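[[Encoded backbone]]
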Amino acid sequence: MDDVYDIFISYGRTDSKDLVVKLYTRLTAAGYRVWCDFNDIPLAVDFQNQIDSGIEKSHNFLFVISPHAVNSPYCAKEIHCALHHQKRIIPLLHVEEIARTTWQSRQPHGTAAQWQDYQSKGLHSSFPNMSPQISKINWVYMREEQDDFEQSLAGLEQIFNRHRDYVEQHTHLLNGALAWQRQQKQTEFLLLGETRQNAEAWLKQRFKDEQPPCLPTDLHCEFITESIKNAHNKMTQVFLAYAQANAEVMHQVDRSLRRQGVTVWSNQTDIPTGEAFKRVVNRGIEEADTMVYLLSPVSLQSQYCQYELKYAVALNKRVIPILVSPLASATLSPELQSLQYIDLTDNVKDADYQLDESELIKALNQDNAYYTQHKDLLVKALKWKRQQQNPSVLLRGYNLRQAETWLKTAQERTTYPATDYHREFIQASLDHPPPASIDVFISYSSADADIARILNGALQSQGKTTWFDQESIAAGTANFQQEIYHGIEISD
């Protein structure tokens, strides 16, 4: 992105303009791109939009603390914007308070009573009205005639360079997410290929022994997980089943899951306008690894929730119940009676919810490879069935061998085993003779892997057999290039 900045400087002109000009000059000379209002707002434009855009596109938000800045409604808006976007905020203490002589020089006709009123409102000091979010962050000190400017500047540069890659990725992904949001969240604005994979790794990065320099916003999490979902043909890891009365808890669980990089299906985001509700819900359940069921007296009475639960159970889907309100005398359905649930009703502090969140993530990660393959094979089996047993959809090569191995494991399980759909589909694939030739060889760059998968599925649905490396080359193959040449040779 060409128009990004290393630093956005927020300050009060009355107290700190001279310092900010000096800072701007030194930082710019050192190679930093600095956004500052005296230099970056064109004429005849909405200045607030320009400021908001400058914050969005800056890796670091530098707030110069002074009485004027702390009490300025304009600076307050800038701080609010930086907090909203979870920017790395660096407070720099410049002026602690102004004396009456300074105030008098700015207010030549000011009276003693006006000065007292000014003081009583805390306008002379940086501390009484300071934003609590600014006050709790460690400051850089750059006070006139008290602190060494060069030493403080070196300290600032150390902060800019700390976790630099992570912070810069935060900015790039935020601007991609904002563009997606401003385009009504159209699919074409989602991340693809290696860019998406890097974003997923960024979202899952954890700082074990130190605080993160900045945090992903909810929009980051949604943007990245929707990109992951799009890359997997809209299939997800979790289907959220809930009653409308529990929508607030649903949103909380949804945010928690997305923050961990988990893809989620919910009826509020995944039912396109004009599509048959029941068919879309069925597809959402089929194409999810796990159903997370928000358990409450209302959901037990909901026909929709009970239908979703019964359909998931019929497909041998894993179900994880979360108790969101006391059941009192409500009777559990047979599908839920034997399941251990996560209990949110005993939460008092934020830390209690975080423990429950960790328990949910741990449960989802347990045997997750098995449940993902359970879903993938089920979706293919249902597709094969609905297309009147289209032989183009049958498994071949590496995928078939992998499915056969998975089925042996699934047959031995007492919980969430293979369905009849799985067994029939895999057996039909084993019985079907491999074709003498393949209709289409798909050649693609790794950056285009997402669309290549979609194209592969679309060709198969039209009765075409395809050679696609992700399905046709077994893991651990010694001569990858030779397998590709063979695929080209046998493809029409």
